[in-house]
Amino acid sequence: MGNELPKVGQEPARRAALVSATISEIGQAGSLDVTVGQIAKRAGMSPALAHYYFATKDAIFLAAMRHILTEFGLLVRAGTARARTPSERLNAIIDASLSSEQFADEIVAAWLVFYVQAQRSPEAARLLRVYARRLHSNLMHSLTALVSRSHAHSIAEGMASMIDGIYIRHALQDSAPDRPRARALVRDYLRLTVAEAGARLDPTH
Amino acid sequence: MGNELPKVGQEPARRAALVSATISEIGQAGSLDVTVGQIAKRAGMSPALAHYYFATKDAIFLAAMRHILTEFGLLVRAGTARARTPSERLNAIIDASLSSEQFADEIVAAWLVFYVQAQRSPEAARLLRVYARRLHSNLMHSLTALVSRSHAHSIAEGMASMIDGIYIRHALQDSAPDRPRARALVRDYLRLTVAEAGARLDPTH
DNA sequence: TTTTCCTGATTGATCAGTCAATAAAAAACC
DNA sequence: GGTTTTTTATTGACTGATCAATCAGGAAAA
Q: Using alpha carbons only, what angle is made at residue B132 by residues B148 and B127, rounded to the nearest 5 degrees?
């Protein structure tokens, strides 16, 4: 059956515009209570066209979430690629997690909203689990070079919790640590826990 | 003007029922997308009656949030009342924050939803700030007995972030530390940071 | 007989999603 | 090369459903 379809090629641009508009609208509204109309308007098209490219509103949200997750993944990979030692790699992960891009108000608000959405939408939950699992395994990879497996597990949990907590407090504006402070907080935690777990710095493994 | 109104006295019970039903519904739905109808049904009354006791749906949500915050406050006070040393008090605060009551799925889901709600509703934001501020000042009160003010500030921020992060991860079910593990995580953080800050255990102050 | 308590029915708004219609580009046909 | 047909892109108008909030009315208590 089908040959390749001829494409006029508006589709990718339109989809990207919708995804970006969705993140902005969610960030501004601070909730999922944004209408397809609002999103479409910000993306410069009619609501009907938004439905032409995405079957349902939920599909738009998921695409936006996937976009944020992908961007984050790229950021982490870019950072860790330069790192030479486990320690450097861990710091790179922290820095990526707390990068200015991820710390933008709009993005933080969107994350928070997606966390809530994950309680309802199985697909959203799946995406968030992929993120959590990848972060955990990234941390584990570097940590097990420094401490025992069970210690590494605890430390990874602590770091991830702290990072997520910093985000949620940032979303709430008040009393949240700023970026450099947040970084220092997580780095200190990493340093102290690794030190206590008895660093074996041998690169045997 | 008015004399005391004669009360048949259904009001407190009905309000309490609505608040409790709201938390359950939000917890179960995992979002604020619950209708007054659902809440009223679970509370055993007609939607119209719910509106008789609460002017708007938002007022119901805020009452539910206030309830959760109040319960949490009571839990903390009960725990810290028994504590004799700063260290004991800090552990009591951790335990209260991660108590089984607060860790109930329903309550965790409600918290998460309220966090999101705070991005829109100024009153919700205010309530959450009161909670954050009280937690911070409670922690500071005990921490300053052990370490310098600036160290205390950092440690309090780290603890609060970690606790909030544990919650958000718990709401997501997967890969979240269970209660004892969560407690150990925060206690370890407290112990290590206080030790590093140079514990002066003298009870002079 | 005034006040509290309670409900069924209704209203008014808001929206997600659909549809019919149109235009323009690309492909197919002659 | 010119005409017809298909495909993609786009919209305004509509529909169907959902719900918050209101209201008019009624019963029991004080």
A: 155
Tokens of A54: 């995405």
Q: Give the nucleotide with minimal C1' distance to the Cα of B36.
A: D20
Q: Which nucleotides of C are covered by protein (CB under 7 A)?
A: 3-9, 14-20, 25-28
Measured between CB atoms, which of A29, A115, A172 is closest to B172? A115
Amino acid at B145: A
Structure tokens at B92: 């009591």
Query: What H or E segment, with its residue span, contains residue B170?
Result: helix B149-171
Q: What are the tokens at B81?
A: 């009342």
Q: And the tokens for A107? A: 């993005």
Sign of CA dihedral A57, A61, A64, A69: negative
Q: Where are the alpha helices (DSSP H) in chain A?
A: 11-29, 36-42, 47-53, 57-82, 86-97, 100-103, 105-117, 122-143, 149-171, 179-196
> Whose CA is closest to B107, among B133, B140, B71, B138?
B71
How far does the CA of B177 sit from the C1' of C6, in Å?
47
**pLDDT by residue (tens digit) across A84-119?**
999 999 999 999 999 998 888 889 889 888 888 998
